[in-house]
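To the team - adenosine-5'-triphosphate complex, inputs and output below.
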Amino acid sequence: MDYCLTTAALCKQYKNFKALNGLSMHVPKGSIYGLVGRNGAGKTTLIRLISGIQEPTSGEYTLYGVKNTDRAIYKVRRRIGAVVETPAIYSNMTAEENLKIQYQILGIPNYDGIEDLLQLVDLADCGKKKTKDFSLGMRQRLGIAVALCGSPDFLVLDEPVNGLDPQGIIAIRELILRLNKEKQITILISSHILDELAKLATYYGFVDGGTIVKEISDTELNAACRKCVRLSVTNTKALCRVLDHMGIEYNIISDTDADIYGEISVTHLAMALAQENCEIKSMQEHDESLENYYMNLVGGEKNA
Ligand code: ATP
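Output:
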């Protein structure tokens, strides 16, 4: 798989406190990567490091194949657009003026792309309105537009829906999906709101105590969180034959256990297994919701 960002044993220490403690992660190109973790888990610290705002204490990261210790990292970092913590916008200026300033900072010779950018983030009708009079959602969208000025192919968003109302959240979600699908931008989003990320992410990194405790694709996560019946039997080969014959979806877990998906008639199954000399030892409903999955990973109180 091609990655636009990988980190290896990344550490960031503040005095005696390790905000990042050997964090290793892999962000596939083209993905929407959800970095999930409770407050203080280290999400913003990680984003500050890869954006070049801070240096790691030890460990390394690689952006588009270039290590952070390589001189070329400064050039590669131009491929990243980031909104870290609060969007970097001037409150006494309009949306258009803010984008013009960013174009100047980046040395872009003309303002040709600004109208399209304003359309993209749904701020084309704001005219002379100063950003201090914008809603939080409008400010967040403008922050994303500022991050998009250099036409990045990797967008990093730190808690982009924090504090937004439901409409604001939907607008940001739709924008993120468009940027990913239509413009093929890889997106890393940090959030402690797992349910919101679940509507977007194609990959997840669960972070806790400054390390990634699990990386998983959305397909794997959905499979792990599906409702199923966990069956323990004396002969899984016989179980496979019976389930295949009945057209039932299943997943073999071990020599004795299998997860069975969908509706099943327990009586029919038990009878068919008996004909194969296979006995059911136990049967348990298994319903791992997204939240339970997360809690099982990180333990402790509910934070996501
Ligand atoms: P949140 O969602 O609350 O922002 P987070 O996952 O983004 O959480 P970080 O902001 O990365 O967490 O902080 C990780 C830990 O590092 C926290 O305990 C925080 O207090 C600590 N920390 C962050 N920056 C500094 C700093 N400059 N000096 C000392 N400690 C810091």
